[in-house]
TrEMBL record:
The chain crosses the membrane at residues 20-39, 46-66, 86-108, 120-140, 170-193, 308-328, 348-373. This is G-protein coupled receptors family 2 profile 2 domain-containing protein. It is found in: Membrane. The lineage of its organism: Eukaryota, Fungi, Dikarya, Ascomycota, Pezizomycotina. GO terms for cellular component: plasma membrane. Pfam families: Dicty_CAR. Its main location: membrane.
Amino acid sequence: MTLSEKQISAISVTERVCSTISLMGTFVIVATFLGSSAFRKPINRLVFYASWGNMMANIATIISANGIHQGVDNSLCQFQGFLIQWFMPADALWTFAMACNVYLTFFHKYDSEQLRKLEWKYVLCCYGIPFIPAFAFFFIQTQARGRIYGSAILWCWVSIKWDFLRIATFYGPVWLIVSLTFAIYLRAGVVIYQKRRQLRNIGGIDSLDIDIPESPFAMLTGIQVTREIACSTPERRSISAESARGLPSAGFRSYTVTIEGGSQQNKFQRPSSQIVPGPLQKETTVKTRPDVVDSQRRLTTETNSATWAYYKYAMLFFIALLVTWVPSTINRVYSLARPNDFNFNLNYASSFVLPLQGFWNSLIYVSISWPAVKTLWSDIRKRIRSWHVPCPPKQLQPIHIRKGSQSSLTPHLLQADNEERRRSWPGSHPPC
């Protein structure tokens, strides 16, 4: 059973509408990432790189069935099939790259700088690996099956005669990546659950034997705080003895404590000369130690929360990946099992979810960057309000002195009076 013209038209309209929505979401990602540094978090950088693949895939899906109508040997059809084969599975690879960041953060203690050094490798793998079969398909053609790129009902892609290649080079690798991604998130989720349960039960970090890595969710900043402290070392002597010798009752010696941010360890710098210990010094050490522990506890709790946020948002991308690929995979398995039966509902579901990859990514991107989005929106509103175009002041009838009148107003006073009347309107400008 084949699809009717009305059904094919409905599928084409859906593809183009969803592709347009996705392109708008991708534009939001690119514009905000390039326009404001507040959006350039580590996870957002991966979304930014993935958005270019979403954009190219949407160019292919917005062509829709026009490539088929032009002919399978036409350059438009071949180009459309190439774009779909290259960029559509790249989104799954980028989700796997986010999962790799989660794995490296939790189990290998990678920080933001180390993760950033891996990004060029992610770009090379996510776009380079799918490029190889996509480009090779241009040159494969047989007498029995013809070209690889041809009609795939929804658009030009791997033709029905080469249907096994859809599983071997497209859906099979995608679901392998999905399985690996799920395994990483499952293991990381178990670790997160254990850590959060320990924090709740113990109420601190003193007994935790698991190091929580520096969060890749925030940017690195260098902070250096220096304090100069004077410590008194009084000696127990009689007043008469001190007065007789002319010695002060207490001596003060200064030392410097330097705390540097940007790494996981605090550095304390002290002078080489040893300070004579005294009762006040010992008491000060005992009092400041709980403060250090509290500060360390707060730092670890914040890091744990940020790492949990990174994991949570990466999981959202994984859920969006499932929403995208489950319906289309069911459709392809159905078509593989029953090659002569085209199910309209399954084909329509595929035409709806596949072009929306960029849209789902943009929604998650906005939710990740919601504080930055609110700040940007506030700045835009302020700029719009400042763009007030003043209207010309209302023409007021000037006061004239009739010839021969006895008015005491001079011409200068008349001009000043007219100007005052113009400025008497409420607001900066008179209403138009």
